[in-house]
Predict the 3D structure of the following.
Amino acid sequence: MSELGHPRLAQKFASDTKRMHWHDKALWFVREKRDVQTHSLDEWEELRECADKIKTHTLENLAFYLEEFERNTRENGIEVHWAKDADEHNKIVLDILQKHDASKLVKSKSMLTEECHLNPFLEKNGIEVVDTDLGERIVQLRHEAPSHIVLPAIHLKKEDVGKTFEEFLHTQKDNSDPTYLTRAAREHLREKFLGSDASLTGVNFAISETGGIVVCTNEGNADLGASLPKLHIACMGIEKIIPRLEDLAIFTRVLARSATGQPVTTYTTHYHEPQRDGEMHIVIVDNGRSKILANKKYLKSLQCIRCGACINTCPIYRRSGGYSYGYTIPGPIGSTLGASHDIKRNFTLPFACSLCASCTNVCPVKVDLHEQLYLHRQDVVDLGLLDKKKLQALKIATFFMQHPLLMDIGGKIARVVMPLLPRSIVYSKYNIWGKNRELPKFPKNSFKELYKKRKR
Amino acid sequence: MNSKETILANIKNANRPNITKLPNIDILHVEYEDKDEKFSQTLKSVGGVASWLENDSSIEEFIEKNYDDLGLIGTNLDLNITHIKPNDIDDPHALKDIDLAIIKGEFAVAENGAVWVKESDNTNRAIYFIAKKLLIIIEKNNIVNTMHEAYKKIKFEKSGFGLFISGPSKTADIEQALVIGAHGAMECRVLFV
Ligand code: SF4
């Protein structure tokens, strides 16, 4: 998919203009809900400051905290496994399941397991995997990937969901009422929960000091899963660690407010021991993260708590959809992580950005998103990965920037000539920029000329 | 080297300077004049209901008044109504038909409508999520302003499982339309006694 790169995939999404605007609005609605929540707290900026410092400190001392976490979790009767990459992670999970003769797994949302492509691997090995988050179940039934990290089915209209449920859950024909469909999913998934042999959840926060994990959900799916079957596996990236229990005060205050504009998630569940007669396993995964840790430029992307706020606010994401990125995580955070993981494959992603910096402004842990994307662009050019046309255009721009006199003359000519040209030439098929967009009116004078006049 | 050693070695080789101190997170935070009122409002905004038991009334009376055609009740509390005790049941699957779970909350949080639940003696976690309706009982005046105050009260010494519950379970995964009642409780009431 990514061979096409972001521009081509985005074009596909944007070709349905009505749907694109609908998608744009749906996400902006979430962004606005976030604003209401964050503006209601005078201490919002201070919370971000604290969150940033806690994460920065943790990344500076990550080995120490991981070892402390492992020690304390073991003391709590939880088993810990380490996986250096996706393959090892998948094998560990399969191995635990097989040891327990478990063939039916209920899963709650975990972007890490998406990243590792755990589902297809387990299915190949005879395990039935059911995603239990409603949005994830919808896309799973449709054989799609989540198009957003918090709102997996945000690209779908209720009619699409209705059709899918009609086919798989035998709901009424043409009934696309969200409440009706949600109830149908509740019943369908209740059966799956009750019939499962094991559950797998992600981890929102792993507390080093107390040796436990916290999982946040609104639906209660992770929670129900982890309390019915006796076996619970939780998978986490090495960056999920926080040092102290009290640090959760900061993170629980910013996470849901940033994510969906709720004051907190419905369930914030703390696991510090297996359930009665049960077993709990935690798999700690690197899969390229320590490589990012070693790169000063992109290090802060490991602070991300996966709230999705940067995605909701991104003007490019809103108009190009999650699939246009061709990477597990879309939007600004996905673009920088994708480029860090594999720049050759994902070299178009740093350009899926207007450098408006809205992402950086909303990020609750202060990841320097737009700055990272800007730096990735330079890496792309240095590695010679840039598309020839774009490179040519940049070279021309550089030349003019370095020759102010030519720039002035060029500007003058453009101001006179452009308004005289017929639309068919200005908005010809070579002007990709002009699709769905109008050029502003050309002013008579340049800024420089106006400035000089004022000074006089 | 095994994977753990490899990962830790890679992290150490990344060579992060050790300069940032853990911040003091005791920052100034909102305080509400009327915490009961704020909690009640916030819980309502997330789909729940807060009630206060009148002085001369009992929990049993409250239940009778507020719930009609009640089916199976599950609670570990000593209440004078017909119920099953989740603690007496070995297999959590057997709790699947519970209509109303009555549980004990430690304290409520005004800023977000959450209640901290940590029943050290409860041996069946599923009760919190499997019941159709949830009734959480808390002692009056046990409300803190924010999560800062909340986490000061939380410890994991005696038992390892605890959670905040803020209203009934919900989802907005279909076209951003909020639907109350996803996988957990479809109704959530907090009763101060
Ligand atoms: S980078 Fe920041 S805003 Fe984006 S998902 Fe991560 S924490 Fe949220």
Remarks:
- Chain A has a mean pLDDT of 93.
- Chain A has three domains: 5-12+19-24+301-382, 41-287, 392-455.
